[in-house]
Amino acid sequence: MSAASEDPARLDLAEIEALRQELERRTRALGDPRWNADPDGVRRAVAKLVLTLVEFIRQLLERQSLRRMEAGTVTPEEIENLGLALMRLEETVKEIAEHFEIPLSELNLALGPFGKLL
After folding, report:
1. I want to staple 47 with a disulfide (CB 3.0 to 4.6 A). Which of 4, 60, 100, 106 is the partner?
2. Do 12 and 68 contact (CB within 8 A), yes or no?
3. What pLDDT was estimated at residue 98?
4. Which spans in 31-117 are helix H?
């Protein structure tokens, strides 16, 4: 009988090593999950995060607007205003991304086993 079976709180060295290797394998598969606090890149990193969240919200608002239009719960004037506001928001996201030299394809967040945000 091993020490681990006698005392469930104890793991033997082989089990610890196996867990460590599995953790390293999964970490490599996800890429480097740590935030690199490079002073020169902080503004860009924050801008990328904020733009990703704004783009996510914009897409949610766009889907909600389409549902409301299909349900007939908005007037033609409201439809026009929603469309214009969403277009301007999309343009603003693009302008800020260009300013920080962030390709729109990089606007995303890895959510681990859930995939990507966008």
Report:
1. 100
2. no
3. 94
4. 42-71, 76-99
